[in-house]
Amino acid sequence: METSEKSDTDIRFVCRGTFVHSTAEEALQILEDALLGVDSEGKIAFIGEGKELQKLSENFGFSPSAVTQLQQHEFFMPGMIDTHIHASQYSYAGTALDMPLLQWLNTYTFPVESHFQDLEFAKKVYTQVVKRTLRNGTTTACYFATIHTDASLLLGQIANDFGQRALVGKVCMDRNDAVKYYRETSEESQEETYRFIKELLNKKYPLVKPVVTPRFAPSCTEALLAKLGEIAKNNKLHIQSHISENLEEVELVKELFPNSESYTDIYHKCNLLTDKTILAHGCHLSDEELVLFRKTGAALSHCPNSNISLCSGVLNVRNVLNHKVKLGLGTDMAGGYSPSILDAVRRALDSSKVLTIQDPEHKTLSFEEVFRLATLGGSQALSLDERTGNFKVGKDFDALRVNVAAPGGPIDVIQNEKPQSLNSHMRLSSSTCSLAGDDRNIVEVFVAGKKVVPFSEP
Ligand SMILES: Nc1nc2[nH]cnc2c(=O)[nH]1
Ligand SMILES: [Zn+2]
């Protein structure tokens, strides 16, 4: 049994059943007939075995009859973490994937994002994104908004209202020759970043924090990048951006920053690589660049749907893991067409298999490893692993109640003739749900001990 020190904790609720999660040692740990208690602050107070019910109920002062028992085919898993998602691109998700990155940005993305100065439009789209991602089991999202400060603040408010844990970034870009009306001056970008951080922090939302967000090197001058690095450092803030997504972009960066050794070096020189930095893609990074990530503690967000949809490249996750670089999964919607991290799990496995087809020596990622990337890995990549990522005592209870056989769901559970051990059954179930399941299998979602799905009536 694992418990927090104090047993005078007030217990909010206790659940009994199978819990599936990742630890540093075990990519997929299955706790059968476990008992997990959540305290009044939404933190995990204890996790023990079902047979310890009597003792735990006395120690923690809860009634055994109040314990919620999971049903057959149900299990709890940690909430999933989307380490890279563009909330502002939801309105065209699933469309417009017919050109490569730079042309796609100019043709579709910038014109759509420019509409977010309209707060009514922003409210509609951002409400839908937060609800949709929560329903899909994203308990933590690291969001890009747009250059508009007020709309970005609105995204923070909506995430807070629905109870989602979120990092929210007002996008910074002082260079954009293609769509001139969607750009700030360097001064505006700095001043508005200050205002965004100040106003969002002043709200004191418990689960929503600002993230400094230079869009990517091609849309920022070196002076702006350096200023944003300074702002992040002085305020100890998270940083997010994109890096080495497609080859044309990498060439453009060489032209725009002729004095830098590499794409990674540009961010490094501007103090943008820290242990609170998350950079999306990295498909074309060199091993030297990965070493710099490792040294600075910066993380990568693997966005396989987007990498395939925009024909950007295939990230060699095995190589990233071998370099001990922190890594999580991202949808990168709308470069990726799905808002679901379950989809990212599937695409990450597919991408890894493509690498194995190309090189049989490549060690394919296992389902268990990718499950860890979607949960614990994401929390580490965002430096939020003290708070979330798995069922460790003292962390917030961010969890999904999954029913493999949810009525009306996409999975038909076919009973095996031979009885299986519960453990292998749950291993199969968690794998089945990730590979064949969808939001219909996610029957409840909890963030910091609060049930946020199904949505409560307004
Ligand atoms: N996929 C993707 N890559 C980017 N690089 C710079 N901006 C973007 C964006 O919005 N999406
Ligand atoms: Zn992106």
From TrEMBL:
GO biological process: guanine catabolic process
Pfam families, per database record: Amidohydro_1
Catalytic activity: guanine + H2O + H(+) = xanthine + NH4(+)
Pathways per UniProt: Purine metabolism; guanine degradation; xanthine from guanine: step 1/1
GO MF annotation terms: guanine deaminase activity; zinc ion binding
EC number(s) reported in the record: 3.5.4.3
Subunit structure, interactors included: Homodimer.
Functional note: Catalyzes the hydrolytic deamination of guanine, producing xanthine and ammonia.
Similarity comment: Belongs to the metallo-dependent hydrolases superfamily. ATZ/TRZ family.
UniProt protein name: Guanine deaminase
Organism of origin: Gambusia affinis
